[in-house]
Amino acid sequence: MYLNKIGFSLIKKLKKRLGRGIGSGKGKTCGRGHKGQKSRAGGFHKRGFEGGQTPFQRRIPKFGFKTKKSLLFQEVRLSEIKMIDDENVTLSTLKKFNIIRENIKRVKIILSGKIEKKINVSGLLVTKGAKKIIENFGGKVF
Q: What domains are defined for the chain?
């Protein structure tokens, strides 16, 4: 319970008085430390302020973003797989027949076009529709 000078209880705790000598615990610098913007009266800065340096939200580009993953991933149509002479379709065979770029790490076969031969796909992603067509012709997806 907090009492005022007369001895009556107060509902609210009294605010710590600043700058009233060493014994008060908040004398001299009043708990603000030494120098700098935050020690001064009116020394505030807006959210995101970085001391005069161009703030992060202004440094980053304000237009689209293209992930680097897209440079390593490519989709291949079933109609493009027709060009492969080999029965087994892998990442290396697609690169060998120049269907995908050399730096590609992941490939997904999509249902677009048709195939008229049996193929075995291994190590590649395949959509449901493409998988159904491949298996209808007696091929396998590993």
A: 16-61 (no CATH), 68-141 (3.100.10.10)
